[in-house]
């Protein structure tokens, strides 16, 4: 009985953490001054943050009632969805202001949040390419895992700082909660990997 209650509480907490920022952003008064393209870009970024929390929870096996095989399968699918959300985020920002996006991609933007965002973006895209061409790369398993983990860490740090520095539609408290959750879940995966090897 305690196990079932614990399982329910974990899933409830998970859904609250990933949906609260989306719901809070949907009620942001700033949306009244944004056009639809900019809103889509912003919400793609928020969905990406939710996926960024889901990924370490899946690969670490921290979400109950999911088999190890399903965890790996979902991790791969949600990884592809994460790449898609980041692409949509950048693409729709491009539609709103191509010169600004070019400056960001070339690391010429004066805004600090843009720098962190583009670093996270390239790390996400590199991870996506690694997964897509894994067989052709023929990397040793340990090297592939370490490279993937290193890019994931860059993605997490870059994304969290990027989100925190932006004063936009995301509500601050829910943004901080999901950001800390992403950092904690990623740190937990790293700690478990180190412990397993030790």
Task: From the structure above, extract its key features.
mainly alpha, 198 residues
What would you note in describing this structure?
- The protein has one domain (2-197).
- Helix content is 82%, strand content 0%.
- The chain contains eight helices and no strands.
- Helix 1 (2-26) packs across helix 8 and helix 7 runs antiparallel to helix 8.
Q: What order do the helices and strands come in, and which of them pair?
A:
Elements: H1 2-26, H2 36-59, H3 68-96, H4 98-105, H5 112-132, H6 134-137, H7 141-165, H8 172-197
Helix pairs in contact: 1-2, 1-8, 2-3, 2-8, 3-4, 3-5, 5-7, 7-8
In N-to-C order, the SSE pattern is HHHHHHHH
| Unreliable residue stretches | none
The overall number of domains is 1
Largest sheet: none
Structural class: mainly alpha
| Overall radius of gyration | 17 Å
**How many DSSP-defined strands?**
0
Count of helix runs? 8
Looking at the structure, what is the overall shape? globular
Helix content range of the residues, please? over 70%
Strand content: under 5%
Instruction: Give the rounded overall mean pLDDT.
Output: 92
| Ends distance | 34 Å
Brief write-up:
It is built from 8 helices and no strands.
């Amino acid at each position: 009985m305690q196990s079932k209650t614990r399982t329910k509480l974990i899933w409830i907490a998970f859904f609250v953490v990933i949906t609260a920022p989306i719901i809070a952003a949907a009620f942001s008064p700033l949306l009244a001054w944004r056009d639809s393209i900019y809103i889509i870009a912003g919400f793609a970024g928020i969905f990406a943050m939710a996926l960024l929390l889901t990924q370490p929870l899946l690969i670490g096996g921290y979400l109950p009632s999911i088999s190890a095989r399903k965890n790996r399968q979902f991790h791969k699918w949600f990884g592809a969805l994460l790449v898609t959300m980041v692409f949509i985020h950048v693409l729709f920002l491009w539609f709103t202001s191509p010169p600004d996006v070019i400056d960001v991609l070339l690391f010429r933007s004066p805004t600090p949040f843009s720098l962190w965002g583009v670093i996270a973006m390239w790390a996400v895209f590199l991870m996506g390419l690694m997964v897509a061409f894994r067989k052709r790369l023929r990397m040793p398993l340990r090297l592939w895992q370490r490279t993937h983990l290193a890019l994931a860490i860059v993605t997490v740090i870059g994304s969290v700082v990027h989100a925190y520095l932006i004063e936009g539609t995301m509500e601050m408290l829910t943004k901080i909660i999901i950001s800390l959750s992403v950092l904690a879940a990623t740190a937990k995966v790293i700690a478990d990997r180190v412990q397993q090897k030790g």
